[in-house]
Amino acid sequence: MYNLPISSYLKSLNADLAATAKRWSLIIVAVAVYAVAACVTTGDVVKVEVVTEDAYKDLKESERTALEEIRKSSAAKKVDSKLTNVIDKTPQLSVTEYLEKYPETSAWVSKNYRVGGYDVLNIMIYEEEDLSRNALQVSADGYITFPLIGRLKVDTLTTAEIGKLIASRLAQEQFLLDAHVSVMVADYKSKRVLVLGTVNNPGSYALQARERVLDALSKAGGIWRRTGISSKSSGSAGKKGLIIRTQNPDTPEESKIVINIYLKGLLEDGDQTANLYMQDKDVLFIPAAENFYIIGQVKEPGSFALTDREITLVEAISRAGGFTPIAARNRARIIRVEKGVEKIITVNVDAITDAGKKIQDVIIQPNDVIVVPESFF
What we know:
The chain contains 10 helices and 17 strands. By secondary structure, the chain is α+β, with helices and mostly antiparallel strands. It folds into 3 domains: 44-75 and 291-372, Outer membrane lipoprotein wza domain like (Outer membrane lipoprotein wza fold like, Roll); 78-111 and 191-286, Outer membrane lipoprotein wza fold like (Roll); 120-187, wza like domain (wza like fold, 2-Layer Sandwich), CATH 3.30.1950.10. The strands form 4 sheets. A 6-stranded mixed sheet has the order 1-16-15-17-13-14, sandwiched between helices. A 6-stranded mixed sheet has the order 2-11-10-12-8-9.
């Protein structure tokens, strides 16, 4: 069957087996070397550690100052947890959805102001100066006391309805049969709105007749825009504002809804659809923009608004104009707070860009601080 003697055949077979074993050995060694190299490279590219006391010793004084400013700014932007819980648990509507669902509510608010407790009224009876009264305050339970006719409940009535009520009672008591009564609100105190978030003067403000979102923002001093470290965002406010509205207040049917307002359209594009009329007990909340920050050896350090898509460290540095010539490109850091713990993520940017290791690039999160220190050489 074989042309070679058995001894020659066995010798040839042993040589083939030896060659095969040698090839497999080389393959195994190559795989092992590659695996070790990959591990070493990963460790060099991205390193995560908890912040220690000397973590920032190589930063310049100006960079430490900027870092402290960012920390204070981030702390000031934190939202009260109770407000966050209300927003998260409340049904949310766009402006269009709200107007479609509650058209009668919007129309009613736009045309009428309903008097309430603590409002101050001026009431004039034409040709009866002795009966006219200025600075007449509505009591907490919604009553006024008027000459000749005594106590009148005016809570939830419009000024026109109050005028008709006074004229009717004067005629009923046979004092004046055809009285012409004019009622004006001299001071609005019964209804209030709360303006919170990134506004210059957050707080509670009296709600007057026919006041809208822009009126409430104006009372609160407008949108707060940060100073100090330069901003590459459209301001410090986020893309939307929220109206937390109480429906059917002080009744068994009381409930809340959240109306989302697109701020850019309202403030910059002149879209008045979102300039809704405010209602009693409304909370107008302007959330802060989700930003990240870059300080140190980049050409344009500052704060940057996070876009709708994810952005990586390399892309973030590009938005800041790239590195300066003296940047420590292999020691870029991301300072990140997770669950109350401050961490430093050290990244070798050159290892990502030069070696094509895009998969190891780090996704930037809100409030990340990217620090690019100066090179030692």
